[in-house]
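Lecture 7 notes: from sequence to structure.
We start with the chain below.
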Amino acid sequence: MTSRIEQLIDEIETYIDNCKPQPLSQTKIIVNKEEIDELLRELRSKTPEEIKRYQKIISNKEAILNDARKKAQELIDEATAHTNELINEHEIMQQAYAQANEVVSQAATQAKMILDNATIEANDMKVAAIQYTDQLLASVESIITQSIDATSKQNDEIIESIKQNSINIVKDVSQNNDNILSALTQYSEMIRSNRADLAQSGSSLSASAPTSAASAADTQDEAINLDMLN
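Predicted structure tokens for the same chain:
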């Protein structure tokens, strides 16, 4: 979309092209002062504040460069502090330390590049700083992602180990319960058998008087069955 400034410039050019030349001259023209002044006044009133800000940036280049140096150093310090936190939190010191040094080195190189470019072209400083910040944050985000992946993998391994141990414990408990139930069942059957033998022996004693030998034999059988109960 064409801005009003561009339209005014076109109108001024068209106006100049349509002006009549002065007699006996190929370069001079006759201009209506009021009309050209009106166009110029409108052009000045439509000049955007952004152009004025860039003019101020160019005139104060040294202040902008110092501000850029400060921001670049702050970004480097922030990246260093962040990577140090990751090293302490996730206990991957060697890998994280190497990656942190690489990020800081890249950040320092990129910061120097931004400052050099800012010295040559002050108007491009803002764009370069934004690009630098995006790359720096992307590097830090990469370290965070790798740390999270490593921690998740360790947690998964621990959980899997706990699950496996739990399964083994359940199997052992189930097997022990089966053995106990089997032993109790056998013991219960033995008790029922002994009680049946005792009941049969009691009936025989009530029916007839036993002989000494038979009485002794029954007494011995009863003692055996009672020992089994104990």
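Points to note: DSSP finds seven helices and two strands in the chain. The helical segments are 4-18, 33-45, 49-59, 61-90, 93-120, 125-207, 212-229.
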